[in-house]
Design brief:
three-stranded mixed β-sheet; elongated; 13 helices; mainly alpha; 278 residues
């Protein structure tokens, strides 16, 4: 039987981890290949890992044809939906797959019709998978998680991506650590799960410390005339001026920045110590 491996399709789905591959190999050696490999003509579209293991160990396998596709994009969309339906796929992998589906659907969709070009009384139709909410629904995740995965894809070092893909760090923490320079991301990953969590925690604390607190609003009743003798009026008169308040905030922020810089130096020293010890 002539089976063709399309490199684009093979690399389109994230590979199994070493432990996942070993578990699949044990299962095939013990129980044989129970599920048929799926072909599109002679191209393998589902079962790449099973096919490799079966060939390596001489395990018999069956194949079935799926002839419903008209293009490689059709095959990719089918592969994505097939993997999204599997319970073993992690949240991060589902998010990545759903974002890939969005890219394919967007490339295939016709140019959107503007509101001025749409017929009277009709809204311009939106292409499917065009919103983050739709992507999140396809991945069975929240819109915030999809946003975090997008940030990881754009800013995370390869080592950090692998850490979140393998479950060493959560999506939320990985998106936070991705805001660090690449070399600091790599150093945090090298320090292991505990150091990654600590790095994410310290970044969140830094952001919280530099966030300007909201000013409390003074409520004035519309039913009561202002006489200038109300308690809130006395407090307002004795309150510091805007310039004084801002100078106080700047001084406080400078002090906090100096403290955070010192903590950052200490964190980098701990990272270096852990790397040297590993």
């Amino acid at each position: 039987m002539n089976i063709t491996i399309n490199q684009v399709l093979q690399s389109y789905i994230d590979p199994l981890t070493a432990s996942e591959y070993a578990a699949l190999e044990r299962s095939l050696l013990t129980e044989g290949c129970r599920d048929a490999l799926v072909l599109w003509n002679d191209v393998l579209i589902d079962g790449h890992n099973r096919y490799a293991i079966c060939r390596q160990h001489g395990i018999e396998f069956k194949t079935i044809q799926n002839t419903s596709f008209s293009s490689l994009d059709d095959v990719m969309l089918w592969m994505i939906d097939n993997h999204l339906a599997r319970r073993s796929v992690s949240d991060f992998q589902r998010g990545v797959l759903a974002l890939r589906k969005k890219e394919i659907v967007a490339a295939r969709s016709p140019a959107p019709v503007s509101a001025t070009d749409a017929p009277d009384g009709e809204n311009a139709p939106k292409p499917p998978m065009s919103t983050r909410e739709e992507v999140a629904k396809a991945a069975r995740l929240s819109s915030n998680q999809i946003s975090q995965i997008e940030k990881i894809q754009k800013a995370a070092a390869p080592e950090l991506v692998e850490a979140v893909r393998s479950g060493t760090i959560s999506i939320n923490a990985a998106a936070t650590v991705a805001s660090l320079p690449p070399e600091e991301q790599v150093a945090a990953v090298a320090g292991g799960k505990k150091l990654l969590r600590q790095a994410a925690k310290e970044i969140r604390e830094q952001r919280a410390a530099t966030r300007t607190p909201r000013e409390p609003k003074v409520h004035v009743s519309q039913d009561t005339p202002e006489t200038g003798n109300e308690p809130w009026a006395e407090n307002a008169a004795s309150a510091p001026s805007e310039a004084e308040r801002l100078r106080g905030e700047i001084a406080s922020l400078k002090q906090r920045v100096a403290q955070l810089q010192a903590e950052n130096v200490e964190l980098n020293q701990r990272i270096a110590t852990l790397i040297d010890a590993s």
